[in-house]
Amino acid sequence: MSSTPEGSSKAKGRPAQAKGKADRPAPAPAPTQQPTGFKSGFACFVGRPNAGKSTLTNALVGQKIVITSSKPQTTRHAVRGIVHRPDSQLILVDTPGLHKPRTLLGQRLNDLVKSTWAEVDVIGICLPASDKIGPGDRFLVAEAAKVAKTPKVALATKADLVEPERMLEHLTQIQELGEAAGIEWAAIIPVSATSGFQVDLVTDELIQLLPDGFALYPDGDITDEPEETLVAELIREAALEGVRDELPHSIAVTIDEMGLREDRPEDKPLLDIYANIYLERDSQKGIVIGHKGARLREVGAEARRQIEALLGTPVYLDLHVKIAKNWQTDAKHLRKLGF
Ligand SMILES: Nc1nc2c(ncn2[C@@H]2O[C@H](COP(=O)(O)OP(=O)(O)OP(=O)(O)O)[C@@H](O)[C@H]2O)c(=O)[nH]1
Ligand SMILES: [Mg+2]
């Protein structure tokens, strides 16, 4: 699958940018003949955990660049995805779900959301149609209202899960939610990232609200996340599958080493990846490793499939399970794990 009209798409292994910042990147070499009226800029998706932000990001980009899961608080940094059109370039910033923080990690993630929406050109607020609007949404919308000048689009996500009557009720409530917070929505759009319903319309609407400008990324780039980060995330996604309760929150992944194996024929490359899965407590090890290592092997196999699909190279993946005691509440561990 490709995200560009030209049929090329790249996940670029650029030097790591300050994690979580929606800083503007160094502009790509300016094209000599940009059509007039070209639009470019940043939009972010915000919402409660599990609202469908990351799935929607992937749908708009047209390729999987961020991981998703049914567990809340999957996304842990602000990831940029790039949508290319002949007359525009939209940089989407997927953010962690805004929630009541219970750990230092949670606080950091919430701060990251707020610093991101202060820096973008458009804010897309994701409100899943399958859930009633709750106190968490009201809090989030009231906070977003403080970024007064930035246009806001309400996205009624997961439209495929509800009947038209429920959607109508949801849209009315979104309108009221905006009025209560003093927000005039630039648009309210029902969308389904999984069925594709109105995904292009969301792109159109976000682009319309961008300023005039030049392309900020080279044609064909779909994200500026370093390859190592993408790989670590795919391993984490595989490790999240089938685990419950507190365990998803306890999992973090780091890459020790990643590189093409030497002495391989040119047409048979092999990418060696040495990675660690960190947990918070010894008692969690058994679940992640499984009987005689069966679960860890499954996680490795699934992660390898995903990494190979993303990078297009056969992969040798070496996974180790380690403990970083209570890392979510430990500033030193958080730093080591990149937060
Ligand atoms: N049926 C349906 N499910 C969806 C849709 N979008 C997302 N989901 C599901 O909702 C769950 C959460 O999706 P994510 O995209 O990870 O949600 P998120 O808002 O990024 O979550 P956090 O990163 O935890 O804040 C996953 O199980 C998705 O498959 C949709 O349009 N329709
Ligand atoms: Mg997410």
TrEMBL record:
Keyword list, A-Z: Cell membrane, Cytoplasm, GTP-binding, Membrane, Nucleotide-binding, Ribosome biogenesis, RNA-binding, rRNA-binding
Region span, Disordered: 1-38
Protein name, as recorded: GTPase Era
Pfam family of the protein (one): KH_2
Region span, G5: 191-193
Domain of life according to the entry: Bacteria
Free-text function comment from the UniProt entry: An essential GTPase that binds both GDP and GTP, with rapid nucleotide exchange. Plays a role in 16S rRNA processing and 30S ribosomal subunit biogenesis and possibly also in cell cycle regulation and energy metabolism.
Domain KH type-2 residue range list: 243-325
Quaternary structure and partners: Monomer.
InterPro entries: G_ERA_dom, GTP-bd, GTPase_Era-like, KH_dom-like_a/b, KH_dom_type_2, KH_sf_prok-type, P-loop_NTPase, Small_GTP-bd
Signal peptide start-end: none
PROSITE patterns reported in the protein's UniProt record: G_ERA (PS51713), KH_TYPE_2 (PS50823)
Region of interest (G3), residue spans: 94-97
Region (G2): 73-77
GO cellular component: cytosol; plasma membrane
Membrane topology (UniProt): Peripheral membrane protein
Residues that hold GTP according to the record: 47-54, 94-98, 157-160
Residue ranges of domain Era-type G in the record: 39-212
Chain segments carrying region G1: 47-54
